[in-house]
Amino acid sequence: xxxxxxxxxxxxxxxxxxxxxxxxxxxxxxxxxxxxxxxxxxxxxxxxxxxxxxxxxxxxxxxxxxxxxxxxxxxxxxxxxxxxxxxxxxxxxxxxxxxxxxxxxxxxxxxxxxxxxxxxxxxxxxxxxxxxxxxxxxxxxxxxxxxxxxxxxxxxxxxxxxxxxxxxxxxxxxxxxxxxxxxxxxxxxxxxxxxxxxxxxxxxxxxxxxxxxxxxxxxxxxxxxxxxxxxxx
Length: 233
Description:
This protein is of the alpha+beta class. Helix content is 30%, strand content 27%. The longest helix is centred in the C-terminal third of the chain and has 29 residues, at 185-213. The radius of gyration is 17 Å and the shape is globular.
């Protein structure tokens, strides 16, 4: 099984960590994500964005102390799988749908980003090259094509998500506390070779289990809300 071809060309891996105490500087910093951002709650803004770009796999970790909204188009070349590391009460809405502890969301590349967060939200996103994702899913025997991806959100059993969530948490911790580790070639290779199969296996097994219970994906359809249903958090 090959996660990434040896002939794959990619710029030198990049790791960036930045902290902000100004919403305008933060908004400028996330422009490469092709989103516009707005602060929803009053008060001094404090936030951070940490980013690691490997070969075919990128991680973005964001957190901020104020309510926040981000909107904009997604990259047609990547699939983004996001989780919220803060839970208990609803911290994040995606297209008006409350994101729970056991949710992975954001992976419909045809649907624009539309995220609303409460104060102190913490989100980690893994962006995978579309062709690499499709190739590896096929090698692993899973059908994770457009029908699956158009859901944009999948709600897993807590035990099914446990190992993948722990990996997201580990990446987030390294981005915050030890970003230099992510610059090491050996560490980058280890993460790519471990994370992508774990992600696809987690999604694929859940898709198969749901398909066995139903001929469609109705159990995992994202909630449908119009913009007028949104509330400022």
